[in-house]
Fold:
Amino acid sequence: MLSARFGEYTLYALEGDQFMLDGGAMFGVVPKPLWSRKIPADEQNRIAMCARLLLIHSHKTDRLYLIDTGMGTKFNAKLAEIYNLRQPSGTLQEQILKAGFSMNQVTDVIFTHLHFDHCGGASVWKDEKTSDILFPEANLWVTRSHWNTAIQPNMREKASFLRENLDPIARHPRLILTDGAHVFEDDFYTMVVNGHTTGMQLPVLEDGSRKLVYAADLLPTHAHAPVPWIMGYDMFPLISMEERNRLFARAVSESWLLFLEHDPTHQIIQLEHDGKNFSMAASLKLDEL
Ligand SMILES: [Zn+2]
Structure:
């Protein structure tokens, strides 16, 4: 498992879940001859994805933050096959142990949003109908605007919010709903964007001179760097494009390190702009920071 010191924090990249999603859905209106040059599709038109989570140990406060929790283990065999869901290097619990921590040392779970590939790993089946949270003592962080969307979803987004994922979060005594951007520590805070879904929060870490941004579904893979190359899953495409245009411009001018959640090949990338569009300028592994 790769780790790195970044400012007052030690970072660990947890790469438990690997899965596949329909390439057409991942690239929206972009024609396949264009996107398949960047990421090849299998015979079922699926592309390889991962859920790369970030575990952050603060040396200032001794808090242990986990960003997102992946797909988890609650999928039945049929869905696991459709998504080709595998955990070759272990479940989330095993990944946290490999990083050298126990589950109950996690003090805070920050959900970028609650689509199933981001929050499924936070709970496991207790019996056929009930799921239990894996972090009973931790604070769970979600934006209020996203929470309201998740519990009363629109018709299109409904399939992304699974009851077995949301119920144990709703019952949790330490669910904390934030109103917009939240400061966890003076060099660790969130930004909120609303194009992929209402109230998606993107954690940002600073080390004095650099910014590392957990890009979540604002930039799921390196191939999604051109502003119009948005996922078919984005709820509000025009907002998404406006946010990507604005934030990617900052990513270039401020040399942001963009931590990619869904790209199985590229962990952290930097962007450039060639006058027409954005693209990947550099790719780093966490231990190269
Ligand atoms: Zn996602």
